[in-house]
Structure formats: C-alpha cells, structure tokens
C-alpha cells in the first residue's frame, strides 16, 4: 500500500523490528525450557504460578488485535461512550470468572481444562461440547491475530499481507512450542509491561499532536447527538449490551482463561483477576480514545474501512520512532493472545481428546507431550492458511459465541447444584444453539406470537445474566432475587421491542433456553451428585502411581 494516508517503513526496517521482537521473545522462553518436560507443567505450570506473572498474563492474553481495533471502532462509531462500552465490559469478563473460579479450583484443584471438570461431573458428552467449542474458538482467534499481523505489515511496509502472516505465525510458534504454557505466561509478562509503557506514551502524544482539547472540543460540532451523549441508547443496544452478554460467555467458555485459572496459586485467584480487570480496562479504554479522537477530528477511514482508523491515527500524528513503537505494541498484543491460543489448543487435545477419552484412563505422558506439540504446529499451519485467504470469519465467530452463551448456565450450575444431570447439560446446550441459529439468521419471521415467544425466552436470558453475576459476588439468595426481578423487568421491556435487535435477541435466547431446559430436565430425575468425586477423578497426569508413592515414603 502506497497511499499517503499511511507512513511506511522500508521492508528491511519492518523485518528487523519483527526479528528483534520475536528473537527477544524466543530468548526469554529459553529460561523456562526443560530437558525433561512435565505434562502438567506444559499445560498449567503445575498450578503454582505467582501473582505478578498471572495478572500480567491474564491482561496480555485479552489485549489482542481485536481489542485495539474493536475499541477504536467503537469510539469512532458511537462517540463518547464507545470506548467505555468496549473496555469496561471486556474488563468485567475477567472479573466475572473469579468467584466461580474459586469454586472450580476447590472442586478440581488438579484440573487442566474446564471441560475436564465437566467430564468428571457428567461424562464425556458435556466434556466434548466444551472441548469442541474451545477448539473452534481458539483456532478462530489464532486466525484473527495472524490476519491482523498481515494487515499491519502490509499497511506500514511494502511487504505483502501473506509475508506478515507467515512471520507472525513462525515467530509465535518458535517460542511456544517447547515449553508451552510456561513460555506463554513468561513472555506475557514482558509483553504487557511493554504494552502499558508504550500506550502511556502514544495516546497522549496523539492527543497533543492533534491539537489537544481545543481541537477536540471543536469537533463536537461534527458529531451526532447520539454520539455526543455518554448514555446513548443506540450505543447501549448495538454495542454495550450485546458485547456485555458475549464477554460473560467468553469468561466461562474460553480455555485461555480457564488455563490461567488452573495455573495460578489457589490463594491468589481473587487478587490476580481483580488486577487483570483493572489493567485490561485501563489500556483498552485508552486505546479506544484514539477512535474517539479520530471521530472528533473528522478523520475519514481510508478505503471506507474503519479497521484503518488505528494505523491512520498513528501515521498522521506520530513521528517514525513512535510509529515503530506502535508497531511493536500491536505485534506484542496479538502475539500474546496467539501463544495463549496455541497453549489452549494443545491442552484441550492432550487432556480432553487424548488423556480423558482416547487413552481410556491410562495416558502416556510422553505421547501427550508429543501430541501437544504436534497440535501447536498443525494449528499454526491452519491459522496461516486461513489467514492468508483473508476469509470472512463472522459466521464462525457467531456460532462459537452462541455455543459459549449456551453453556454458561449449565456449566456454573453443574458446579453448585447436585441435581444437574448429563442429559440436561447436553440437550439444553444443543437446543439453545438451535434456537439461537433460528433467531440470528431469521429463519423464522420475528413477528407476532413467534417474535413474542423469543422475546420472553430472551427475557429469561437477561434474568440469568443478572442473576449469575449477583450470585457470584453476593450469594445464592441475591442471585435468585435479582435474577427473577431482572427477568420480569426484561419481559416488560423486551416485548415488541427486542426483535429489532437481532444480535442481542439471539444471544439472550441462548442463555434463556439453556437455563430453562437444564433446570426442567434436571428436575425430572431425582439424582444427587457427590461433588467430592470430582477431585478424585481429576488428577495430575504426572502424579506418582501408588507403588511409586509407597517406595518414596519408604526411602
């Protein structure tokens, strides 16, 4: 791309920047390499990671390419409230998991994946639903990050899109392959320190280079009344509410969060997740302000593509040295998430596909490690191939997001209520996904009785979202009361209205359907589950055999 809207480095400069970044990251990863790798350490670092590394890793993992572009686009499209709707709700996703994470770790202190916990609770059906959804989600995330790397390289240099994709893929794989999760969290720490340092410099630099408060104040005459309103209903219904619902599903459904939950020391879960919440929110809201500044300054997206807002602002208001730092900032953010995706994919294949199913309870640790590394290589190749084609991944993202929305209630309730059954879990998720598909793609007309029925189901979904949050932070009674009140209020407000907002209607339908069916089907059978069985069934793969333990005691 040679358009003057973008500053371009020479090919040699960009290659040197990439080599320096990935070379330095690879060098850091050598400090955690082990000649004789441990299966549990490869997946969750044996559950003993400290506060600083864990908090930084959570923050870096969720500040990915979409955070940069999504926050800026939200600020550009929705004005004053846009960055808050993206950054605040995204941060809430991290905070939401910790009260339930405490329960997950209490039930299964030696777990590697959340799907593994569900297998111990219900059997293979619920485990495979979680595992497959995470395989799809992590692969799509990997593809998105490689695509962002290719786009950034093609915008800021004469190099091709495919070249940028290839360098990013090889670079991330190089430092993640041998030490897995340990390499991911160690490099995350360095990457988040760099991201915070660079963001603190770049955002004020753009602000003052653009003319400061005087220039931005003058821009209020260019924007609409809704964009100037911090409490814009358009922003809430089109951006805030759908994103809020989606990120809560992401908190429960995504293995990269669960992996860090099972890796951090159990007594540090609360402080780690609260710190990561604050770190993510501050950085992403700050980056979203670049989009708001672009709106107030009257910047027109190059080629009509709002994804170009970020590089345009960097090119227009930063000197070359700062643009180079911006380049590293974006590459670091997408790499920290891509390596987490590789670690998550390998853990799922090692634990949920091989360790707990194919190996039939007798896994070979060496074979598991080999499978984990092969998974990383195959996933990287697949991500590179799909990213190089610049495929439209919206439909896949919609399905994965819906599946995660459908599993939130069954997963959480399965860890607190002893009457939830395996069939209740599986059928509630499957039917919730089916109804979501009908709504999201309008396979039936959302009018009359049909539209009203789906709005009522979505109202239940709204109550479920509010109730689960209240339950996590304030206990069961508060959760039930707020959930019921929320569902009634949503039913009154949604009727005849929500059908015009398909994305939000579909997402809440997934929540509501799974909650209704999971509860009803569970009540149809009078089963009781002993939660102590989960810890007995979920163990370290490298734990000594009883004979080895006896010998160790004797010596």
Automatic annotation (TrEMBL):
Pfam families according to UniProt: SSF
Keywords: Cell membrane, Ion transport, Membrane, Sodium, Sodium transport, Symport, Transmembrane, Transmembrane helix, Transport
Membrane topology of this protein: Multi-pass membrane protein
Main localization (coarse): membrane
N-terminal signal peptide: none
Gene3D superfamilies linked to this entry: Sodium/glucose cotransporter
Transmembrane segments: 6-28, 49-72, 84-102, 128-153, 159-178, 190-210, 230-252, 273-297, 317-335, 368-387, 393-417, 424-443, 449-470, 477-495, 501-523
Cellular location(s): Cell membrane
A biological process from GO: sodium ion transport
Reactions catalysed, as given in the entry: L-proline(in) + Na(+)(in) = L-proline(out) + Na(+)(out)
GO MF term list: symporter activity
InterPro entries named among the record's database cross-references: Na/Glc_symporter_sf, Na/solute_symporter, Sodium:Solute_Symporter
Cross-referenced PROSITE patterns: NA_SOLUT_SYMP_3
One GO CC term, this protein: plasma membrane
Similarity comment: family membership: Belongs to the sodium:solute symporter (SSF) (TC 2.A.21) family.
PANTHER family for this protein: SODIUM/PROLINE SYMPORTER-RELATED, SODIUM_PROLINE SYMPORTER
Protein's name in the database: Sodium:proline symporter
Species whose genome carries this gene: Pelagivirga sediminicola
């Amino acid at each position: 791309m040679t358009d003057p809207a973008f500053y371009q480095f020479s090919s040699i400069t960009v290659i040197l920047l990439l080599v320096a970044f990935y070379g330095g990251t690879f060098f850091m990863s050598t400090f955690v390499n082990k000649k004789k790798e441990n299966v549990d350490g490869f997946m969750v670092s044996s559950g003993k990671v400290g506060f600083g590394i864990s908090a930084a890793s959570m923050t870096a993992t969720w500040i990915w390419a979409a955070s940069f572009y999504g926050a800026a686009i939200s600020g550009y499209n929705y004005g004053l409230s846009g960055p808050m709707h993206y950054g605040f709700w995204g941060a809430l996703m991290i905070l939401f998991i910790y009260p339930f994470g405490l329960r997950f770790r209490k039930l299964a202190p030696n777990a590697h994946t959340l799907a593994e916990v569900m297998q111990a609770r219900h059997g293979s059906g619920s485990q495979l639903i979680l595992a497959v959804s995470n395989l799809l989600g992590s692969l799509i995330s990997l593809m998105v990050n490689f695509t962002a790397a290719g786009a950034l390289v093609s915008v800021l240099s004469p190099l091709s899109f495919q070249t940028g994709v290839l360098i990013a893929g090889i670079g991330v794989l190089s430092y993640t392959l041998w030490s897995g999760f340990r390499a991911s969290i160690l490099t995350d720490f360095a990457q988040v320190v760099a991201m915070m340092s660079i963001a603190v410099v770049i955002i004020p630099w753009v602000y003052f280079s653009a003319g400061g408060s005087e220039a931005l104040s003058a821009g209020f005459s260019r924007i609409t009344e809704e964009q100037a309103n911090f409490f814009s209903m358009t922003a809430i219904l089109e951006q805030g509410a759908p994103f809020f619902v989606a990120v809560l599903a992401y908190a429960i459904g995504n293995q990269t969060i669960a992996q860090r939950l099972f890796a951090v020391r159990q007594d540090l879960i609360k402080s780690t997740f609260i710190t990561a919440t604050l770190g993510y929110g501050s950085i992403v809201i700050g980056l979203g302000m670049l989009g708001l500044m672009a709106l107030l300054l009257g910047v027109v997206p190059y080629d009509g593509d709002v994804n170009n807002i970020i590089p345009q602002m960097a090119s227009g208001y930063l000197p070359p040295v700062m643009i180079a730092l911006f380049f590293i900032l974006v590459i670091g953010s997408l790499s920290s998430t891509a390596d987490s995706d590789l670690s998550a994919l390998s853990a799922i294949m090692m634990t949920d596909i091989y360790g707990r199913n194919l190996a039939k309870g007798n896994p070979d640790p060496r074979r598991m490690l080999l499978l984990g590394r092969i998974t990383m290589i195959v996933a990287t190749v697949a991500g590179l191939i799909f990213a190089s084609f610049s495929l439209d991944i919206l439909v896949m993202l919609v399905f994965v997001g819906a599946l995660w929305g459908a599993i939130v209630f069954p997963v959480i309730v399965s860890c607190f209520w002893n009457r939830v059954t395996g069939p209740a879990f599986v059928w509630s998720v499957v039917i919730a996904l089916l109804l979501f598909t009908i709504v999201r793609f309008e396979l039936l007309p959302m009018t009359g009785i049909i539209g009203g029925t789906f709005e009522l189901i979505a109202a239940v979904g709204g109550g479920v979202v509010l109730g689960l949050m209240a339950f996590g932070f304030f206990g069961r009674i508060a959760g039930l009361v707020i959930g019921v009140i929320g569902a009634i209020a949503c039913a009154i407000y949604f009727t005849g209205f929500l059908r015009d907002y398909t994305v939000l209607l579909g997402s809440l339908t997934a929540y509501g359907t799974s909650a209704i069916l999971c509860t009803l089907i569970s009540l149809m059978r009078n089963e009781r589950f002993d939660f102590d069985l989960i810890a007995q069934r979920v163990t370290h793969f490298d734990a000594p055999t009883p004979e080895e333990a006896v010998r160790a005691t004797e010596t």
